[in-house]
């Protein structure tokens, strides 16, 4: 049996390692903060009745979580892909091959987990299947630098909302298996349009988000894009809604989850600004005040999945049915569930380390794709 002092030393050493992992120089604390905000924003969108957002009416500002939280999450997926494939400098050929294959494995695991979460019957649109598909679609772009990535993202943002309207009307979705297929590919977060967010995030990572100049430019660009798109949307609304929707009215909108042009530009800009603002905040003493949020952001997959799993367990115990949304919201679960997950993530991050799902996905991807190729890669 180990001596008490040896046990204490091990625990102290583990705590120090976990603290360094969460707060060390090699970690972008602002990205963790932005991820944490995105996850909690999705909690709010799921568990609260959110008003229609009017920027001039502070009482409606809770509506900011609707649509924008998931777009922030998707943009951060691109940032994560960029960071694991070299950050500002893409990895060498063989190292990149290994990184891409591991990302492919993680995408498969994400899709499988997403399907399992959908199977709980909890009435939310699970983002993980779409997230997995976008991971795979992003792989061919990981060799590109910031400028071409941001250019391609801008092109997709302008072009794909017009095409998305036609894709949404495809007969496929009206077949008996249409709903199941839609859920399986995460069509509520349609990847043809949402790849713009992923590639924008990948472009930000290639631009080197550790640099103050990049953070300030990203903040300014994001604010300008959001203000322009939301301003144009407000002007369009001033003319009244058309009785019969037209291609123009379906595209020229910033309505949450519409995949309209103005939503893509406005909420994409909002996501870029939120990432930059989080990075700038974490240059100050605020970094310590937001430690619990950063802990959530360090294990976003675990936090996101925990919300749905806990929801399913509670709903099954109380109602005998996991699919009832309004009755579950009437239990006012947002604060207990959110605070519990934030506290749990903080304790886990400090006492154990990586989130359980993050650790598992990392281990499985490394077992399936060994790192031997990286030893021969170019620096």
Fold and architecture overview:
The chain is mainly α. The chain is 69% helix and 0% strand. The chain is built from 17 helices and no strands. The protein has helices at 4-23, 29-47, 68-84, 93-119, 128-138, 146-168, 178-184, 191-206, 212-237, 247-251, 261-281, 286-289, 291-298, 300-319, 325-330, 334-351, 356-368. Helix 6 packs antiparallel against helix 8. It starts with a helix and ends in an 11-residue tail after the last helix. The relative contact order is 0.16. Residues 374-379 have low confidence and may be disordered.
Approximately what portion of the residues adopt beta-strand conformation? Answer: under 5%
Instruction: Return residue spans where pLDDT drops below 50 for at least 5 consecutive residues.
Output: 374-379
Percent in helix: 55-70%
Largest sheet: none
Spatial separation of the terminal alpha carbons: 46 Å
Short description:
With 379 residues, this protein is mainly α. 69% of the residues lie in helices and 0% in strands.
Can you lay out the helices and strands and say which pair or pack?
Elements: H1 4-23, H2 29-47, H3 68-84, H4 93-119, H5 128-138, H6 146-168, H7 178-184, H8 191-206, H9 212-237, H10 247-251, H11 261-281, H12 286-289, H13 291-298, H14 300-319, H15 325-330, H16 334-351, H17 356-368
Helix pairs in contact: 2-3, 2-11, 2-13, 2-14, 3-8, 3-11, 4-5, 4-17, 5-8, 6-8, 9-11, 13-16, 14-16
């Amino acid at each position: 049996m180990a001596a008490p002092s040896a046990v204490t030393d091990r625990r102290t050493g583990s705590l120090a390692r976990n603290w360094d992992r969460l707060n060390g120089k090699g970690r972008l604390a602002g990205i963790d903060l932005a991820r944490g905000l995105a996850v909690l924003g999705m909690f709010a969108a799921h568990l609260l009745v959110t008003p229609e957002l009017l920027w001039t009416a502070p009482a409606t500002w809770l509506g900011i979580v609707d649509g924008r939280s998931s777009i922030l999450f998707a943009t951060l997926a691109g940032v994560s892909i960029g960071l694991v494939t070299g950050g500002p400098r893409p990895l060498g050929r063989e190292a990149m091959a290994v990184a891409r294959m591991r990302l492919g494995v993680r995408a498969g695991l994400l899709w499988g987990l997403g399907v399992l979460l959908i199977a709980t019957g909890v009435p939310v649109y699970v983002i993980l299947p779409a997230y997995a598909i976008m991971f795979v679609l992003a792989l061919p772009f990981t060799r590109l630098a910031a400028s071409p990535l941001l250019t391609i993202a801008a092109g997709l943002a302008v072009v794909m909302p017009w095409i998305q309207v036609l894709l949404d009307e495809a007969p496929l979705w009206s077949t008996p298996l249409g709903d199941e297929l839609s859920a399986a590919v995460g069509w509520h977060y349609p990847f043809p349009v949402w790849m713009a967010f992923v590639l924008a995030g990948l472009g930000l990572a290639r631009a080197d988000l550790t640099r103050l100049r990049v953070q300030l430019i990203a903040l300014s660009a994001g604010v300008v894009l959001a203000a322009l798109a939301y301003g144009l949307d407000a002007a369009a609304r001033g003319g009244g809604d058309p009785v019969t929707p037209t291609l123009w009215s379906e595209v020229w909108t910033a309505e949450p989850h519409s995949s309209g042009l103005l939503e893509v530009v406005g909420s994409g800009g909002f996501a870029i600004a939120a990432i930059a603002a989080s990075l700038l905040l974490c240059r100050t003493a605020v970094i310590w005040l937001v430690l619990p949020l950063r802990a959530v952001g360090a294990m976003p997959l675990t936090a996101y999945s925990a919300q749905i799993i806990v929801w399913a367990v509670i709903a099954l115990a109380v109602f005998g049915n996991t699919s009832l949304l309004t009755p579950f919201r009437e239990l006012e679960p947002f604060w207990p569930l959110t605070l519990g997950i934030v506290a749990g993530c903080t304790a886990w991050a400090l006492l154990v380390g990586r989130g359980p799902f993050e650790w598992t996905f990392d281990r499985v991807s490394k077992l399936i794709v060994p790192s031997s190729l990286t030893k021969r890669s170019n620096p």
